[in-house]
């Protein structure tokens, strides 16, 4: 089974750049405390790195 990430949006998106808002929306995170399970691949890792200060990431097996 492929690895995946459990991503939780810990902060609101007000005051962030348009790019950061778009990345959060593409990951499916809309409001604080939203949780999504995201498949591990290079594209998703890059998106998580762009908003790493706004999210909490846990690795799932």
Which terms would index this structure?
single chain; 61 residues; alpha+beta; Ribosomal Protein L30, Chain: A; 3-stranded antiparallel sheet; 2 helices; 30% helix; 28% strand
Mean pLDDT over the residues = 95
Strand content: 25-35%
Give the domain tally.
1
Question: Main sheet: which strands, in order across?
Answer: 2-1-3
Structure in words:
With 61 residues, this protein is of the alpha+beta class. It has a single domain (4-60), classed as Ribosomal protein L30/L7 (Ribosomal Protein L30, Chain: A, 2-Layer Sandwich), CATH 3.30.1390.20. Helix content is 30%, strand content 28%. The protein is built from two helices and three strands, in the order βαβαβ. It has helices spanning 18-26, 42-50, and strands at residues 4-9, 35-39, 55-60. A three-stranded antiparallel sheet has the order 2-1-3, with no helix packed on it. The radius of gyration is 11 Å and the shape is globular. The model has no long low-confidence stretch (mean pLDDT 95).
